Amino acid sequence: MAPRAPKKEDTPSSTGTPEVLKPKTEKAKVEKAKAEPRPRAKSEKANKEKGEKVEKEKEKVVKPKAVKGKGEKGDGEGKEKEKEKKAVKSDGKAVDKPKVKAVTGDEAVALIVEYLKAQNRPFSATEVSANLHGKVTKTVADKLLKELGEKGTLGMKATNKINDDGEYAKGTQFVFWTPQNASDTATPEELATMECTIAELKASNPILQKELKAQSSKLAMMKAAPTIAQLQDMVDALRVENAAKANKLAEFKSGKVKMPSKEEMVAVERAHRFWSRVKKARKAAYGELEYSLMENGKSREDIREECGVEGDD
Q1: pLDDT-derived band of residue 238, with 50, 70 and 90 as boundaries?
Q2: Which position among 1, 70, 76, 130 has the lowest Cβ density within 10 Å, counted as fewest Cβ atoms?
Q3: What is the pTM of this model?
Q4: Angle, CA of 189, 185 and 121, to the nearest 5°
Q5: Coiled-coil annotation: which residues (predicted)?
Q6: Looking at per-residue confidence, does 56 or 176 come out higher?
């Protein structure tokens, strides 16, 4: 076998020394992958679109200005409706409530003093104004009552004492009343008479209570009793019933209706017992026969129709 021809690479160099490899001094460049742009969320796009739509609509919409006196519905109609709703009678017709005119000056003083004398108990300025139903305002009542209290026309009591400055502390509450007249007090003789009268009334009270109870029960019985018209109807019904019974009694007495004897009644009872037993035995026999026929495929309705039997008895 012929030897292989050497390749060019295998042939030694002219110098006869092997070729030396030099190291690479260049630095390897590393390229970083660029981050891809992240897609925007759909929600952001939707929000932007909605915002643009809303802005466009705001630009288009223009609120009309209300013009007074040109037939448009304004605040005047609402006030009129509120007035119509006020004060409605039982028949459904709207009526305006009469406005109470507030009084001042001597007229207000007379009204306040008259009210306090009639009630004969302490009141505050707010209570007086409220109980007079707005005839005297709260401010006027407070001012006039304090003036009357300082003059001595009315009794006055404050929750706080007067300061060194001669004024009451802020938030002090006042009550007012009519002063009691010393001449109105009763004498000892009058008081004794009053006590005797009170004792007599207390002693008679139990007797009156018993009488009231008796009269109340009597009244309840009278209310439960039938009226005259109801009694008349009851009497007429009883007369008709008595007439029918009288006719029947007359037939019995005349002999038109035959009365059964004791022997006949005993015979009827004996026959009833006999036929009751016969009925019971026949019913049992029929039941057995019906059951046997039903086993052969016939229905109960067909069997009773062929035999002419009606009902369970």
Answers
A1: very high
A2: 1
A3: 0.32
A4: 140
A5: none
A6: 176
